[in-house]
Amino acid sequence: MLVSHPNPQLFNHHHKPTKLGTLRPTNQTQCLSKLGFNRWSQRRRRCNSTVRPQSVLSVDDEVLKSAIKADRNSKNYRYDVIVIGSGIGGLVAATQLAVKGARVLVLEKYVIPGGSSGFYQRDGYTFDFGSSVMFGFSEKGNLNLITQALAAVGCKMQVIPDPTTVHFHLPHNLSVQVHREYSEFITELISKFPHEKQGILKFYGECWKIFNALNSLELKSLEEPIYLFGQFFKKPLECLTLAYYLPQNAGDIARKFIKDPELLSFIDAECFIVSTVNAVQAPMINASMVLCDRHFGGINYPVGGVGGIAKSLAKGLVDQGSEILYKANVTNIIMEGGKAVGVRLSDGREFFAKTIVSNATRWDTFGKLLKGEDLPKDEQNFQKLYVKAPSFLSIHMGVKAEILPPDTDCHHFVLEDNWTNLEKPYGSIFLSIPTILDSSLAPKGRHILHIFTTASMEDWKGMSQKDYEAKKELVAEEIISRLEKKLFPGLKSSIVFKEVGTPKTHKRYLARDNGTYGPMPRGNLKGLLGMPFNTTAIDGLYCVGGSCFPGQGVIAVAFSGVMCAHRVAADIGIEKSSPVLDAALLRLLGWLRTLA
To answer: How many whole angstroms from its chain centre is CA 487?
Structure first.
């Protein structure tokens, strides 16, 4: 889903870095303290309980210095893998590798884990940085990747089922609720477009065909031939189904069955909230994962907030004997003999490992971290096919609870006047109200509104700080006015807390080039054919996250993390591998990308 990040002024940054993994904790309180949080609830001590921080970070400089002393100016490969960044993709890759026996070091620029799936606390509110629409938390199937990732490190989170994925408020007063139960959603959609009943059933039926095939497979690296051939022999029809749809886009398939332009525009909106592109540009496999999993596994909100996912994974990583270092700003990937062998931080420290995994965007990885290196041909081709998706303007608000009707849904998508505004900056609005599901996130009698809309970095450059702050307030005022008019009369008068973030905020705190959240096709590409996987043209360097196959979104980046861990594990000798088959498969995949 769409994601965003709070304002730079929201945090107290006078904290020193905290090193993890040097000592093994004897209980959860110690473990959470080593994760960098000062005071934790003492009422629940087991890993599968919900634990919420009361403040942001603690300090232990001496522990930090002693823990990293052995690595300074050393190339003894103390680590098997270094992961740059602790977004969900990076943490899933790191924990999967740690469980397999690898010694992993995660380096995080910020003061808490999670990247765009992090959190912050202010005035009694716990705000999610990004989207509160959480996939991958169910107890069944193979696409419950967050559940699986947590279980791999012995953790389980309490979740609250969301009865409605999203409530659409669209032009011409079209209102559609995406109910958790598939039959209820389809019945409502057909009631809006009765003349398109067969087309609706056929299009979403195609989505289910893809989802069921994907959900039946054990998900590992598509770059590892032993696994790939094994899955093909076990599930040939399912594999052939996915291969058939790999080069196809959702909009093209929708247009085979549906003619009504407004219904096709609705499907554009369905894809846009997942990938920031319309259905014609959205890969069918990606669309199917989301459009079906919201009914199969459902949307489930983690008690205490989305930030608990990353905290639990980070805790699990440390429990496995690996480490995470905060306020560790990687500025260079160190190369020797054409191989990535380590990283250098902004303070001059260096760490070395057998392999490097970058959870940064591909633009940041190859444009900033690999200074002085020629851009590999594969990356040149990637940048010809894909551009940076837009960033976001985000508004985090606390409001008086009585302003919301009692039957208010948790998630809303608002596009009031014209379908052509769907992809324009500030054209459409996504709204999450997580306190509808978990009231503990806000003070009594209050609700959280997290509002975000697409915005370009270019729109926020070249102005003084005073003009910048004034523009933030002006744009936020316009967005809030639209919600007041469409959804909640009197909204402005109910606001008791407000913070605004822009693309500059996203760039600063998430180290994302222009605040982007991943790639967007330049034109109408052939599905996922052009999307790069985890390996790169640089020996020893891998990428993970939203700019790798299968793309943006929590479930997609978790999938990317699982795939990356499997491929890295094979390459460092803790999973089976076949160098001859590896080389042949990688050449084949490279050729297929040229067909996009």
So the answer is: 28
**Residue 490 predicted with pLDDT over 60:** yes
Q: 281 and 85 in contact (C-beta within 8 Å)? A: no
CA trace torsion 186, 207, 128, 550 (10° rounding): -170
Q: What are phi and psi of 326, to 5 degrees?
A: -95, 165
**pLDDT tens digit string along 314-325?**
999 999 999 999
Q: What is the dihedral of CA 6, 11, 16, 22, to 10 degrees?
A: -50
Q: How confident is the model at residue 404 (pLDDT cuts 50, 70, 90)?
A: very high
Confidence of residue 179 (pLDDT cuts 50, 70, 90): very high
What are the backbone angles phi and psi of residue 333, rounded to the nearest 5°?
Answer: -95, 125
Spatial distance between the Cα atoms of 166 and 298, rounded to a whole number of angstroms? 12
Q: Note whether 541 and 570 are same-domain residues.
A: yes
List the structure tokens of 146.
């967050």
Phi/psi at 294 (5° precision): -60, -20
Q: Does residue 63 sit in the same domain as residue 140? A: yes
**How far, in Å, CA of 253 to CA of 280, rounded?**
9
Pair 381, 527 in one domain: yes
Tokens for 339, please give them: 């191989």
Beta bridge partner(s), residue 449: 397
Residue 361: which domain range? 57-117+134-158+299-386+523-595
Mark whether 214 and 285 lie in a shared domain.
Answer: yes
Query: Which of 442, 343, 411, 374 lies closest to 121, judged by CA?
Result: 442
- pLDDT class for 431, splitting at 50, 70, 90? very high
- Tens digit of pLDDT for each residue in 72-130? 344 557 899 999 999 999 999 999 999 999 999 999 999 999 988 889 999 999 999 88
User: CA of 415: how far to CAs of 106, 145, 418, 426, in Å?
Assistant: 40, 31, 7, 10
Q: Is the dihedral of CA 143, 145, 146, 148 positive or negative?
A: positive
537-560: b (≥16 Cβ within 10 Å) or e: bbebbbbbbbbbbbbbbbbbbbbb
Q: Is 32 exposed, middle or buried (CB count within 10 Å of its CB: 0-12, 13-18, 19+)?
A: buried
Distance between CA atoms of residues 116 and 128, nearest Å: 9
Local structure of residue 193 (DSSP, 8 states): -
Q: What is the pLDDT of residue 373?
A: 82
Section 176-203 average pLDDT: 98
Alpha-carbon gap, residue 399 to 397, rounded angstroms? 6
Report the number of distinct structural domains present in the chain. 3
Same domain, 428 and 380: no
